[in-house]
């Protein structure tokens, strides 16, 4: 994991030997389990280091993470960005949520093998989790990568965030198309876009955008709507 060490050093993250071993073990489990289930299309070590591990950690360039924030990663899949964030910033209290149970089984195996505390993997659709009192408005930070457009994703994620907390989606560079409807949805859900950061993964030309959404007020009770509605009828888009 020398390559990961070098790349993230450029964004001021210094991983110690234990953390590098955890990333190595995580990589091995990912490749091993990927043979029997669909976890990721990316398996070459260099690619996993850059496109999964370093990309997940890029948020630390803009958000202070070395404190005990509660974080939920919605639609985490094989654990991105939640697991790399937890390895690099072990003080975080992390909930990984995904609607596909076999991925949750994999995540539990990673948590067990890496002997991590204060991290749980939950099998739930975001729309159900967001209406469950155990998770609703309980998090300082909600993150999500590659799950839905900004509008639908806001309805998935905003209900989890405490007032004063943040929803920060990992977005691709073509954000302009989604931002208009996204901003409307975010307002309805009690949030406000505070900042948008554009960056690249060090040593590459791979772009990443972070939208910083601050939760200004509680999300109205009717959101999230029942499962499937946020994607079928995204908030902020005019009905045809
Ligand atoms: C393309 S994958 C991205 C996984 C991971 N975040 C990443 O960046 O590699 C999308 C993931 O979101 C999950 N997902 C999709 N809709 C969801 C929902 N409504 N609630 C929870 N998880 C969902 C899928 O099961 C899948 O694992």
TrEMBL record:
Among the GO molecular function terms of this UniProt record, one is: methyltransferase activity
A UniProt-annotated Pfam family: GidB
Matching entries from SUPFAM superfamilies are given as: S-adenosyl-L-methionine-dependent methyltransferases
Gene3D superfamilies given in the database record: Vaccinia Virus protein VP39 (3.40.50.150)
Cell compartment(s), UniProt = Cytoplasm
Positions bound to S-adenosyl-L-methionine: 75, 80, 126-127, 145
Record key words, sorted: Cytoplasm, Methyltransferase, rRNA processing, S-adenosyl-L-methionine, Transferase
The signal peptide stretch is: none
GO BP term, example: methylation
Q: What class of enzyme is it?
A: transferase
Q: Which InterPro entries match?
A: rRNA_ssu_MeTfrase_G (IPR003682), SAM-dependent_MTases_sf (IPR029063)
EC number, as in UniProt: 2.1.1.-
Q: What does the UniProt record say this protein does?
A: Specifically methylates the N7 position of a guanine in 16S rRNA.
User: What family classification does the UniProt entry report for this protein?
Assistant: Belongs to the methyltransferase superfamily. RNA methyltransferase RsmG family.
Q: What is this protein called?
A: Ribosomal RNA small subunit methyltransferase G
Species of origin reads Coprococcus ammoniilyticus
